[in-house]
Specification:
Number of strands: 5
Distance between the termini: 19 Å
Number of domains: 1
Strand content: 35-45%
Helix content: 10-25%
Amino acid sequence: MRDFILIRKKDITGRSGTGVVAEGTIFQDGQVVLKWLGEPYALGIFTSIEELLSVHGHEGNTYVQFMDKQLAIETEH
């Protein structure tokens, strides 16, 4: 798993604001869960970080900053 924050330089819709607007996790299979930090505090599930940015990238005005800690998940075979 890899944790990240979503940072918005410019809010083109006027809804989420700027700065850190969401936090999320990328799972080992590439799926992403995103939690918005402002109302309505919704969750989003995406097949990849690329899909998330295609929906919420705001024409390049939003970027992902990964947190320092990376956790490895061991799976049994």
